[in-house]
Amino acid sequence: MQTPTLIALALYFILMLGIGLYAWKRSTEDSEGYLLGGRNLPPAVAALSAGASDMSGWLLLGLPGALYLSGLVEAWIGIGLFVGAVVNWIVVAPRLRRQTVEYGNALTIPQFLANRFPDKAVALRVTSAIIIVVFFAVYSAAGLVGGGLLFESTFIDAPVMGFSPYMAGVLLTALVVLAYTMVGGFLAVSLTDFVQGCIMVVALVVMPLVVLFGDGWAATGDALRAVDPDFLSWFGGLTTIGFLSAIAWGLGYFGQPHIIVRFMAIREGGVKAARNIGLAWMFVALIGALGVGLAGRAHVEMNGLTLENSETIFILLANTLFHPFVTGFLLAALLAAIMSTISSQLLVSSSSLTEDFYRLFLKKDASEREAVTVGRISTALVAVAAIVIASDPESGVLALVANAWAGFGAAFGPLIILSLTWKRMTGAGAVAGLVVGAGVVMAWIALGWNSEFLGGPGIYEIIPGFAASWLAIWLVSKATTKEPAVAVA
Q1: What tens digit of pLDDT does each residue of 304-361 get?
Q2: What are the phi and psi torsion angles at 266 (to 5°)?
Q3: Looking at the keywords, is NAD present (predicted)?
Q4: 331 with 2: CB under 8 angstroms?
Q5: Angle at CA 173, nearest 5°, toward 172 and 179?
Q6: Which domain holds residue 111?
C-alpha cells in the first residue's frame, strides 16, 4: 500500500480514538451517561448516528454487491428501507423518546418493556436481552467480515503473526472499535458515528460520479445492457415473492435496538429536526450505493477487470481510480461504515448484559461506576463472540445482515409499535410477540425457507416472523386483558 493511503487511514484512526478520549471525559460517570449520553444528543448527531449505525458496511459492500450481480431490481431493498425509516421516525421516535422517560427513565429497550408491563418485567427483560445479545453477535460479525474483506483485498497480502490476511483484518477492526467504545461509551459511539456518517455520504456521492464522468453516461448504460437487457429494469425477472421480500426489509426498522436507542437519547424537542436530517442523509446515501453497484459493474465490463467477490466492488474502484491519498479517504469511509455499526451493536449488547442480567440477578445494588465497568467487560465478551462467527471467510455480509435484521425486526418490531400505540396490550402479549417473532425467524432460516419455499423462490424470513409476532401479541393480549392497561398516546 502506498504511503499517502496509509497516512489518510492513520489520520482517520487517530480521529476516532481522539473522539473516544473526549467522550470518556464527558459521559462515563454514570449509566445514563455511558449508555445514553445523558439523553442530550444534538439532532444532527442523533440523526447521523442512527443512519451510520444502521447502514454499516452493508451500504458500501452488500447493497452495491447485490446491484453489481443482479441489476437495478435490487434497488427495491433500498426503497423498502427508506419507507420503513420514514414511518419509524414518524411513529416510533417521538413516542419512544417521551415514554422511556415517563416509564421509570428506562435506559435500555428491555428496561422500557419491563416498566411498561411490570407484571411480566423479569420475563421481558431476560427474553429481550437474550435476543439482543444473540442477534447482535451475528450482526456485529457481519461488520467484522467486511473489515476482513477490506484488509484482505487492500491492506494485507501475507499472514500476520500466524493469522491469515482475512482474519488479521477481522481482529484489527474489532480491536479499534473496542478501544473507543469501551473508553467513551454512547457519546463516543454517537460522535464517531456523526463523523463517519459525513465521510460515508461524501464517498458515496463522489465515487459513482467519478466513474460515470470517466467512462461516460451513455457508454455505462450500454455496457450494463450488454450484460443483460433487463439489467437496468426495475422489474426484470422480479417475482411477486421477490418484490415482497425486498420491500419487507423496511419492516425491520421498528425493531432494531441500535437504531431506536438513538431516539431515546435525542435532546428534548429535537426529534423533528433529527428526522429531517436523518432521512435526507439516508436518501443521498442509498442513491450513492446504487450508483456504486451499477457504475462499478459497467466499469469492470468496459475495462476487462476481474472481480471475484461482488461485495468488494467499492474497494476495487477505490484502489484503481483515485490518487492514493483519496483512496485512503475512501477506504476510511468503508471502515467508518463498518465500525459505526459494530460499535453501536456492541454497546447495546453490553447495556442489556449489564442492566438486564448483572443488575437484575447478580448485584441489584451495583454502583454506577461498577455498572460502567461491567458494561465495558460485556462489550469485550460480545466482540469475542462476533469474532468467532466472523472467522469463516466464506461468510457473506448481506446474508448475515439479512438474518440479524429479520430477527430483530420480527421480535421487536410489532412489540415496539404496539407497546407505544395500543393501550390494551398486555405483558403476556409482549412476551408472546418476542418469543414467536424470534422463533419463527430462526426456524425459517433453519429450514431453508428463505432460500426455497414449497418448490419456489424463498421468502425473506422477516415476513412470516413479523406477521406471526403481531398476531401473537394481538391474540394473547385479547385473551389476557382483565382491565384497561395504561393509556398510551
Answers
A1: 888 888 888 888 898 888 888 888 878 877 776 777 677 777 777 877 788 777 877 7
A2: -65, 140
A3: no
A4: no
A5: 90
A6: 3-399
Q: Are 154 and 1 in contact (CB under 8 A)?
A: yes
pLDDT at 257 over 70: yes
**Mean pLDDT of the residues in the chain:** 82
Look up residue 163 and give its DSSP letter. Answer: B
CATH of the domain at 377: 1.20.1730.10
pLDDT digits (tens, 9 = 90+) for 116-147: 999 898 899 889 888 888 888 887 888 788 78
For 456, the enclosing helix (H) or strand (E) is strand 456-457
Residue 418's pLDDT band, with cuts at 50, 70 and 90, is very high
Q: Evaluate whether residue 448 is within a structural domain.
A: no
- Return the C-alpha cell found at 379: 462489550
Is position 442 within any domain? Answer: no
Q: Is residue 431 part of a domain?
A: no
Q: pLDDT for 150-188, tens place per residue? A: 778 776 666 777 788 888 888 888 888 777 666 656 666
Alpha helices in 117-267 (DSSP H): 121-150, 165-215, 217-227, 240-247, 257-265
Q: Give the helix/strand (H/E) hosting 452.
A: strand 452-453
**Burial class, 367, CB count within 10 angstroms (exposed 0-12 / middle 13-18 / buried 19+):** exposed
Q: At what angle do helices 257-265 and 109-116 cross, to 10 degrees?
A: 70
C-alpha dihedral over 95, 101, 103, 109, to 10 degrees?
70
Any idea what the Cα angle at residue 370 is, between residues 13 and 365, rounded to 5°?
150
pLDDT band at 29 (very low <50, low <70, confident <90, very high): low
Question: What single letter denotes the amino acid at residue 78?
Answer: G
Q: Is residue 211 part of a domain?
A: yes
The pTM for the full model equals: 0.79
* Residue at grid coordinates 448527531: 45
Q: Which three cell numbers stand for residue 239?
A: 417475482
Give the total number of structural domains in the chain: 1
